[in-house]
Design goal:
about 270 residues, alpha+beta, three-stranded antiparallel β-sheet, globular
């Protein structure tokens, strides 16, 4: 908008002018958001293609990664259906129908991301279940139990999930969880007990930090570093690699869950 057009608008409607100034201020003070929206469209398209290329029409599900024989209902296929809902609703509907067809309707934790977990917090321990084996293709899922999860607050991802879970009902508590997670950032990634076990940072925790910050309307101080690292961790296949070291070098392979987290972050408002 040209300056003279803005002045004319302001004379006609002071409130509209104030809103325009607010929008301009937001864009000027959030250049990383502008850059992310403008520059990650190719990465998003490539990531979505990675998921669709993994789709197995014999099960209407995605395997954990390329050539894998394990198909996770939760979290992998639940997340994939959410991601593909806008670009490939046909596949998303088939995935959701397949999950229901196996008699599985929930996990109990991952649904927090979409406000679909009725009792996702406080966290409880989980179990990994074999649902069925179909000609060597193993269908598995994750489900929470009734046993409380001890020591969860030492892990960055669970602090961030707790913040998201409390974002609407207890915003101050949510902010406290968010800030505690940020305290685990060491300049390269989240150095929680999982990192200390193998000296590798988890890629999905980078994505979850962006998702949580946007959900809470909080600034992520190292957002630009996170976005840069996410760009480096996308494989040539379009999927995101699971882990990386202190030098930012990828370790592992591209899988469904990590890719879905990365896409949720890059498509986050």
């Amino acid at each position: 908008m040209h300056r003279s057009d803005y002045q004319s608008l302001l004379r006609r409607s002071p409130r509209a002018g104030q809103l325009m100034m607010l929008c301009l201020w937001f864009l000027l003070t959030h250049p990383d958001l502008q850059a992310a929206e403008a520059s990650f469209s190719r990465e998003i398209t490539s990531g979505e293609r990675f998921l669709t290329n993994l789709f197995d029409p014999t099960l209407d599900l995605l395997p954990e990664y390329h050539s894998a024989k394990v198909y996770w209902l939760y979290h992998d296929n639940y997340l994939a259906a959410k991601i593909l809902k806008s670009s490939r609703p046909d596949l998303a509907n088939r995935i959701e129908a397949a999950i229901r067809g196996f008699g599985v309707s929930r996990s109990g934790k991952i649904e927090i991301l979409f406000n679909e977990a009725t009792n996702g917090f406080p966290f409880r321990t989980y179990e990994l279940l074999n649902v069925t084996n179909m000609a060597g293709k193993i269908v598995r899922t994750e489900r929470v139990t009734d046993k409380p999860l001890k020591g969860w607050d030492a892990y960055a991802d669970l602090e961030l999930m707790a913040a998201i879970a409390k974002s609407k009902t207890a915003p101050e508590e949510a902010t406290a969880y968010f800030n505690k997670a940020l305290g685990l950032w060491d300049g390269h990634g989240f150095a929680d007990p999982a990192f200390k076990h193998g000296d590798l940072y988890a890629t999905y925790k980078l994505a979850l930090a962006i998702i949580c910050a946007d959900r809470l309307n909080q600034q992520l101080p190292f957002r630009s570093e996170v976005l840069q690292q996410l760009r480096k961790l996308q494989s040539s296949s379009g999927g995101w690699i699971t882990d990386y070291d202190g030098d930012g070098k990828p370790h592992g392979f591209a899988n469904v869950e990590t890719t879905c987290f990365a896409l949720l972050a890059l498509r986050s408002p």
